[in-house]
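thought: user wants a sequence for this fold. calling inverse folding tool.
action: design(structure=
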């Protein structure tokens, strides 16, 4: 049977383009995509916005002068389909700004005037000048110009929405730009280059934005650490190949460990050292990692074996007693640990939940699950609820389509992202201390809160690239 859940918005594969020199954005006859044609559906890129369906990117024909009013938005958000129209729609749905705020700073309502208007809006926006020391992040509005464009002065400027920062480029979506509706801008340090057109002035985000009171981090296959509205931590070792397999966050929420496929431990943030009990050079077999509040934990191999690790000088915990092991069969998919350090649970690819305990803590009890798919490798993640021990534990299994399946008596929860027939969900984490609130991460890095969890924006989002390998949360409880 397929994973059972309630469908919500479905992000489809987003069009991508190779990094390239960007064409002209303003005051020039250019091909910006067929006028009024949907270039990128909103839920392909704005996965952090609940009303992402209203954020489609549209073509604006062969000239910046196209300025009509018609379906689907009329002129509610400005002339269709100028760059400012997308910027206004995004600010309205993501931040709660007025529908016509771009005209606040001047009667022309130009893109460059957005910069000046930003601090005085109902939701004040912070101004981060290009090269000023603060990186752009997913969800920012990037403002271009005014400035010299070729041989003449460009007073209109341009605006785009940042969808990710990775690999030396800033990914953006935009109207009245390339016919694809998306592009990549080179970045060096905190300076974004715009070769061939109006220079980048800076980026905007809400002034009252502040990090979550806990750490929420995803990791991609090369070791990029993706902060979900959390304090930015140092990246993992940043390999040039797909070998990162998981991430654990410590009790402070400010440190943790990235696990590589060979069993290597790589500290991040305030975690200065990490020691693992086993290592398999040239054998990509490690699949997951979880840490307890006392700087100890276990990492999981694909056969179901559990291996102790510790951080910041803590002693290694004991090898646990397992209730399932599949020698030579790589079917283990994830693990979660009891906060008291007495053990945890291992998830197999079919949705089976298998408890384990450390020696001396007794035999773990079995648990009643609500979903199991024998013969179908579709389970992708598992979490435990606070207070779980080996005598009574509960939590949720995540399937690849985004469905949440309770076990051990946990209450049913409604996922905010569900993608039927698409195996794209990659990890799950609970808000520390909460029994109902948490996040699912998709393969592109999009975060989908459930159960009333606080809104969170991914610091890196890579549309069209299924790269995420783990999600973890810690601290703040």
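)
observation: tool returned 477 residues.
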């Amino acid at each position: 049977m397929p994973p059972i859940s309630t469908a919500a918005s479905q992000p489809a594969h987003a069009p991508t383009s190779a990094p390239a020199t960007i064409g002209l954005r303003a005051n020039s006859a250019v091909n910006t995509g067929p006028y009024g044609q949907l270039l990128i559906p909103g839920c392909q890129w704005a996965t952090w916005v609940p009303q992402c369906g209203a954020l489609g990117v549209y073509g604006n024909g062969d000239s910046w002068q196209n300025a009509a009013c018609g379906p689907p938005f009329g002129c509610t958000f400005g002339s269709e389909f100028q760059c400012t129209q997308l910027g206004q729609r995004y600010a309205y749905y993501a931040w709660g700004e007025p529908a016509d705020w771009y005209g606040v700073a001047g009667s022309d309502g130009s893109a460059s005037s957005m910069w000046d208007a930003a601090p005085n809006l109902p939701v004040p926006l912070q101004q981060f000048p290009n090269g000023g020391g603060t990186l752009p992040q997913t969800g920012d509005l990037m403002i271009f110009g005014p400035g010299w464009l070729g041989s003449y002065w460009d007073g209109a400027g341009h605006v785009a929405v940042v969808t990710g920062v990775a690999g030396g480029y800033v990914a953006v979506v935009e109207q009245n730009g390339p016919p694809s509706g998306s592009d990549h801008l080179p970045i060096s340090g905190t300076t974004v280059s715009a070769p061939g057109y109006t220079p980048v002035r800076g980026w905007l985000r809400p002034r009252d934005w502040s990090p979550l009171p806990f750490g929420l981090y995803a990791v991609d296959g090369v070791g990029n650490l993706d902060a979900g509205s959390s304090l930015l931590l140092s990246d993992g070792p940043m390999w040039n190949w797909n070998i990162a397999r998981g991430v654990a966050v410590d009790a402070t929420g400010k440190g943790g460990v990235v696990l590589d496929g060979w069993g290597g431990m790589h500290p991040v943030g305030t975690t200065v050292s990490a020691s693992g009990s086993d290592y398999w050079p040239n054998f990509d077999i490690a699949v997951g990692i979880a840490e307890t509040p006392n700087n100890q934990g276990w990492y999981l191999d694909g056969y179901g074996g559990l291996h102790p690790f510790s951080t910041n000088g803590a002693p290694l915990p004991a090898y646990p007693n397992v209730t399932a092991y599949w020698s030579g069969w790589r079917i283990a998919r994830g693990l979660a640990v009891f906060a008291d350090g007495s053990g945890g649970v291992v998830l197999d690819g079919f949705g089976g939940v298998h408890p384990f305990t450390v020696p001396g803590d007794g035999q773990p009890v079995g648990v009643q699950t609500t979903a199991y798919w024998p013969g179908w490798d579709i389970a992708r993640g598992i979490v435990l609820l606070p207070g779980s021990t080996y005598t009574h534990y509960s939590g949720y299994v995540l399937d690849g389509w985004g469905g949440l399946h309770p076990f051990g008596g946990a209450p049913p929860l409604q996922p905010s992202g569900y993608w039927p027939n698409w195996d794209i969900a990659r990890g799950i984490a609970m808000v520390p201390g909460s029994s109902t609130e948490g996040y699912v991460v998709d393969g592109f890095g999009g975060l989908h809160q459930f159960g009333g969890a606080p809104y969170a924006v991914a610091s890196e989002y890579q549309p069209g690239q299924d790269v995420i390998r783990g999600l973890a949360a810690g601290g703040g409880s």
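thought: summarizing for user.
answer: Here is the designed sequence. The chain has two domains: 38-206, 215-474.
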